[in-house]
Structures are given as C-alpha cells and as structure tokens.
Amino acid sequence: MELQVSNSPFNEEQTKLLNQLLPTLTGAQASWLSGYLTALQGTGGIALAAQPQTGAPSAAIPAKEATILFGSQTGNCSGLAKKLSKKLSEQGVNVTLSSMSDFKPANLKKVRNLLIVVSTHGEGEPPDNAISFHEFLLGKRAPKLEGVSFSVLALGDTSYEFFCQTGKDFDQRLEELGGTRIVPRVDCDVDFDEAAAGWIDDVVRKLSEGSAQASAAASLAGTALTETESEYSRTNPFHAEILENINLNGRGSDRETRHLEISLEGSGLQYEPGDSLGIYPENHPQLVDDLIEAMGWNPEESITVNKQGDLLALRKALLQHYEITVLTKPLIKQFAELTSNPGLQELVEPGHEQELKQYIEERDLLDLVQDYQLKGIPAASFASVLRKLPARLYSISSSPKATPDEVHITVRAVQYEAHGRDRYGVCSTQLAERLQPGDTLPVYIQHNPNFKLPADPGAPVIMIGPGTGVAPFRAFLSEREETGAEGKTWLFYGDQHFATDFLYQIEWQRWLKDGVLTRMDVAFSRDTDQKVYVQHRMLEKSRELYEWLQEGAYVYVCGDEKKMAHDVHATLAAILEKEGGLSQEEAADYLHRMQQEKRYQRDVY
Ligand code: NAP
C-alpha cells in the first residue's frame, strides 16, 4: 500500500521520499530499518525531528526491546554482550548494545529490559568503562526503575575476596530501585564460558517469549566492532608457531623479560595496537609430577575432563586442562567435603575466615594435599572440583602494519619463593624456560576497544608504562611510524637498572631520532639511593605535561594496577592542581571527563 499524507504522519516531501525508498527494500532491509529506528528512539542515539503534534499513530510497533550495557576491562564482557545481542536480535528483539561509558544515564528511564554484563577488578572495583555508570546508579541521582526488568551477568575470579562485587552491586541496586529480575544474576569464575552461555540462553528464552520474529536490529552505540572473521577465537585457539624468543635483560639483572615473536600466518587473526594476545599455557611438569606422586595416582589413568565426557590421561589433564597453582575459598570448601581431615574441616568453619584467607595466599594444590593429607581421594573426584586452566592475556607489543602476520609480546618470567618452595608463574615460566622457536602455542586475540590510539593522528599522546607495561607503547609507536601520524608523543618508562633492564632501548632511541617519539623520560628505580619512579619524572615535568593535557593530549597508562596505576593517577591530579590551579574536586572531575572522552585510557592489572 502506498503511503499518503492522509494515511501517515508524514508531510508531502517525506511521503514522496519514503514511497521512493520503501518499494526498493528487501525484507531483511525493511526489518533492519524498523529495528534500527526503534533502537535509536530508545537511546536518543540520533536527534530525531520533534514528534508531530497530530497525525496517525506510527504503523510499526516493535516487538520487544532490550538494552545491553557492558563494563569490560579486557574485552570478555564486551564479547559476551555482543553474543547476547546477536542471539536476541535473531529472536526479533530490538537490541541496543552499549558500553556503560557511552550510555547516557538519562536514557535509563526509557529502558524496559536492562541487561548488564560486567566484570570486577582488583579489590572489588568496576572496570574503567563502568566506573561512572556504577557511581551514578549507586548514587542519589539514580532514577526509580519500577517497570524495568533486568538481569546481571557478573564476571570475576573466586581467588579474589570481592568476587563479582561489581555485578552484585548492580544487581542489588537495580532491585532497590524497583526493577524486577528477568532471570537471577549469574556469577562466573575465570572459566566463564559455560555459566555465561547458560545465562544468555535463559535471558534469550525469557525475552523472546511472545516476541515477533520480525523487527530485529542491533544498534551498536559506541561499540567498536573489531570482531575478526577468523575461525579462531578464545574457544577455538590457533596453534601459532614461535619465531623468536629472546631475553631482553642484560647479564646480572634480577629480572628476565622475554620478547616473543609469534606467527599468525594462515590464521586470519587480526589485531590492532592496544589489543592483547590470549595464551593457553601448560602447568609446570615438575609440579604436576610432584602432585601425582604426593597423591599416589597412576599418571596414565583416564579421567573425564568436561560435561561432554572427553577423556584424558591424568598427567596430560593436569598439565593442560586444570588449574593447580591457585587455591580459592570455594575450592577449599569442596575439598573439605571430599575428605574427613579435621584440620581442613575446621579451616572452612565460620569464624576461621581470616585463617583461610591467609592460608590460600601464595599456596597451591601441592601444599594443600601435603598439609592436609588428602592422599586417598580418587583422581576423578579430585579433578571434578578443579577450575579449568584459564588463558593468560599479554598486551601486544607489535603493530601488524610493521610486522604483518606476526604478533609480539613482552613477558616477565615470574618466579619467587614462598612457604619454603620455589613458585613459578604458569605461562611466563613456560614461555621463558620450555618453549623454543619452532614450538607452537594455542593463542587468540583479545580485542580491547578501551585502549586505542586517538582517531586524530595529530592529537598529542602521553604514554606511561614502567616495566613490561611499556609493551603496548612499542606497538603504538611502531604503528605511528607506519602511518606517519604527526601528533607529538611522550613516553614515561622505568625499571630497576639502566644497564640491564632498559627494555627495547635501541628502538626508543631510533624513534626519538626519527621524530616518531618526541620525548622520553626514564626512571631507573634502583640506580640511586632514593627510589625514582615514572610519576616522579612526571612531576618534574609538570608544567609541560599540563600544557600537553590542555592541548588535548591522550594519556595511556599500562602496567601494575595495585600501586603504579594509583600513584600515576594521583600524580596526574596533583599536576592539574599545581599547574592548573584546580581544587582537588576539580582535578578529579577533569580526569573523569578525560576518561569519558577516552582521552585517559588504562590497561592495568
Ligand atoms: P614492575 O614490577 O612494575 O617494575 C617496573 C618499575 O616500576 C620498577 O622500576 C619498579 O621499581 C617500579 N615501581 C614499583 N612500584 C611502583 C609504583 N608504585 N609506581 C611506579 N613505579 C613503580 O615491572 P614488571 O615486573 O614488568 O611488572 C609490571 C606489572 O604490570 C605487572 O604487575 C604486570 O602484571 C603488569 N602488566 C600489566 C599489563 C596490562 O595490564 N596489560 C601489561 C604488562 C604488565 P622497584 O621494583 O625498584 O620498586
């Protein structure tokens, strides 16, 4: 039926344009457009013309809408949110998908079905792109949300005290504000695939009840969709060949930092500077053998390693499939149920929380079986309570433009002594000690839209990355050398000793000479009586640094989250106060705004 001014809310010119366009649309295009317009109205994504005061009601009434908000540090939550969006769209639900930092809180009142996918970091903190929304929702200005249905998927790690805290905060607050749960919150441990898939299926089932299959669209507000077309992913890693594996530290250094070059040839995997490489490691063979011996198991015994009933020889399963180096509270509780050891029973009883917390620190399964005589538990029962060995993420230190089909990483070998025994970082030690060029590793790309060079190649860039935190900045500068980006760049770098620990020294010097790097300030913490850190160098240059900020510089911080990132943040605030005459509150606002504008990005853990 042709549109007319009399049977539609459109004026003559609009009717003419629509009559030209509509007959040319395929079914899929028509349904996409319908969903798109609905989603835009829901979020205020574009400025639609003011509503007509009179006229016929709109013809296309959408089926259901859902707004998915994610808060993601490493990209896992954004990946799951996209998966959920796709599934809902396929069921005819109109989806708005957005990072929490891109979502306008004022639009919350318009949302009917709110789905939150969020991770937790450090001591129960939200990821950077969830901080403002978390603050808003938990604060006084949050609106009443009666009539809003919601559900929360929380990602976390049971080895941390405040497991899934951010997800729990959102879930509780949405209920307090009057919302109704679509399905209960699901808290996922590091091995989140199965639990997350279950939550997604439940949400999709609930929301697609009664929904027409027709109008489906995903409005990707503010989401950089960098999903590659590769068949390889986190759940199907590519077995990549190692091309180079060298120690970057000089003789006499306390540290060992490996530079690895890995071939992605034939994988179709693509990445950008700022992304990370996921690696599925293997446990240390000595630790596996010691554990098998302590338990008196047969290493060749077959055990079932998943719900599909796949069998693996015990030794192989402990090498490749199970986490054996981390103790968590839930794990200890499960072991207490498998044994009658009175000491372990007591450790999990109420009133012993502090003792339990202290015990699990820097201890592994070998300690547990030795300290609490767990010998006698059959291998299959023992394995059934273990977590799957999670992948490790390393910030990529190369640019695909400079080294196509390759990815480079910069990894510090973690080794220390605790409770009378040497301890080894699972992946870093495997990379440092047991892998040579020619060997292969299961890898995938973890995209990180929250750590990206500015779109404007002329914008100034400040990079702060002590230790291996400098890795992504090698990728940034490599990329800028290839693209000829003209904006000025400033790197703050530090490590213990100039002579042995100056990672990639020759490359920075070459980039300084060529103008790819405009300035570099270094802090070698143990070459002087007093410790000198990157933030001390920043303070020394506070005037210039402030000027760069005022010129619109983008600030990137990578490395240790616990101390360095906090100290650097405090130093940025101090510089704003000192040089800009801002109050403490104004400086905090300034940094907050920079974060909102993506001019202050951090890749820290
Ligand atoms: P590191 O231990 O961070 O040491 C690098 C330099 O930073 C040393 O000179 C150290 O001095 C100094 N430092 C210590 N405390 C500091 C503080 N509060 N503020 C500023 N500088 C401080 O180096 P690393 O072994 O390479 O470890 C880097 C950390 O970053 C690790 O925690 C790693 O997991 C993390 N990392 C994260 C990412 C990421 O999030 N994508 C990427 C790479 C690395 P002293 O040792 O003399 O005290």
From TrEMBL:
Residues 235-454 form the FAD-binding FR-type domain. Transmembrane segments: none annotated. The keyword NADP applies. Pfam families: FAD_binding_1, Flavodoxin_1, NAD_binding_1. The keyword Ribonucleoprotein does not apply. Keywords: Amino-acid biosynthesis, Cysteine biosynthesis, Electron transport, FAD, Flavoprotein, FMN, NADP, Oxidoreductase, Transport. Residues 66-204 form the Flavodoxin-like domain. Its cofactor is FAD; FMN. The gene is cysJ. This is Sulfite reductase [NADPH] flavoprotein alpha-component. It comes from Paenibacillus cookii.
